[in-house]
Design goal:
The complex is a heterodimer of chains A (160) and B (297). With 160 residues, chain A is α+β, with helices and mostly antiparallel strands. Chain A has helices at 24-31, 87-94, 104-117, 123-130, 140-150, and strands at residues 3-9, 12-18, 50-53, 56-59, 72-74. A five-stranded mixed beta sheet of chain A has the order 2-1-5-3-4, with helices on one face. Chain B folds into three domains: 8-57, Uridine Diphospho-n-acetylenolpyruvylglucosamine Reductase, domain 2, CATH 3.30.43.10; 64-174, Uridine Diphospho-n-acetylenolpyruvylglucosamine Reductase, domain 3 (2-Layer Sandwich), CATH 3.30.465.10; 181-293, CO dehydrogenase flavoprotein, C-terminal domain (Enolase-like, domain 1), CATH 3.30.390.50. Classes of the chains: A alpha+beta (160), B alpha+beta (297).
Amino acid sequence: MKVLIDLTVNGEAYQIEVEPQTTLLEFLRNQLHLTGTKEGCGLGDCGTCIVLVEGKPVNSCLMLAVDAKRRGVITIEGLEANGQLHPLQQSFLEKGAVQCGFCTPAMILSAKSLLDKNPRASEMEIKEALSGVLCRCGSYKKIIAAVLATAGGKEERNEI
Amino acid sequence: MKRLKPFAYFEPATLAEASKILVGQGSGSYLLAGGTDLLVRMKRGEIRPSALINLKRIDGLSRIEPKVEKSLQIGALTTISALEQSSFVQSAYPVLAETAGLLGSLSIRNLATLGGNIARASPASDMAPALMVLRTRVSVDGPEGKREFPLESIFAGPGRTTLKVGEVITSFFVPKMAAHSGAAYLRLGRREGMDCALVGVAVLLNLSAKSGDVQEARIALASVAPVPIRARKAEEELLSGALTEERIQKVATAAAFDSLPVSDMRASSSYRKEMLKVLTFRAIEQARDLAEGGNNR
């Protein structure tokens, strides 16, 4: 039994059939071939599968694709505009914040959600916003520095 | 990938329809709210639902509505992050907003719902004790109509509620916090975030404006009994005289008597009891300070 859903992903409208047991993560990767979104634990603990739904970060491994009906989804593939990387992506490159890269999409999307609401977020606010994503390489320092630079703050600008 | 096994899927547009499907599909059917607990248990193979009934197409279940005299109605599908971020909740029931902020990660809180958290009937629910000390009442709708009852009577056992077949939680009603009252929820985990409570203690105190005596006291506990419970002996002790340090210590000891913690991989029963005393002591002090502050905090 398939369910017809309409949604937008990275600004593009889709009308597509999904099996009810398909998670948003599986839908994005297997049906839309947007493989930038990663599966880590698959159980909501690691945050690697985070995408933005209506601008808010959610674990796409714990959301059914049918629940994305009539909603707007943003994945890491949707951040580049007119051949230009998003400022956060650029900053991650410049600060060397990408080590193995597996958590990077979730880190960048979580940061984007914060900075869209609060463009001058503090280091504490950034840490709080990224706290749902695990980085197994332990690159947190550079990741936070990259987001802080995008927020117009200096490294070690304030409290640790 | 961790895949979900197939299930029959329903998207009812009304509560009556949801209730009918729930009855028709029988015991293998589950309601889907936020899914952050349900889908995890399905992926782990702990449950194998034959049908999921998604409640999100039903209108009006996700509102946070201030009601008369600063009371509050919270729709069952309200997300934990909506509760955490609501400016009304932050100002009128700070303990609720703060407790909501303790759950999981932000991306989990954006999915998880208050109704789901309560319907799961986890002994470790952080929301339950905070709601219980605030005298929260729960509204349900089902084949035999609507009913409303105190939140604590919804818990039947670990993972089990007193809801009848076909009943759906629709909303929570939180009465106004009285003047000169304060409430706090403290939780101990092995780490600060992304962990479930080893011990959770919520305390509400209402102090007399004149004497400063305790007029009303409510204490509710998480993770130290098969379900979230009120600490009745501790409440009585709290009401029995002036709020001295000695009294608070006695209350903390009474709370440990009220509890019935298990030993499991997270902590031993005796450790939980000891920590329960510490947290109860601190939560009473915090609630007292907030009540004396006079700003409902």
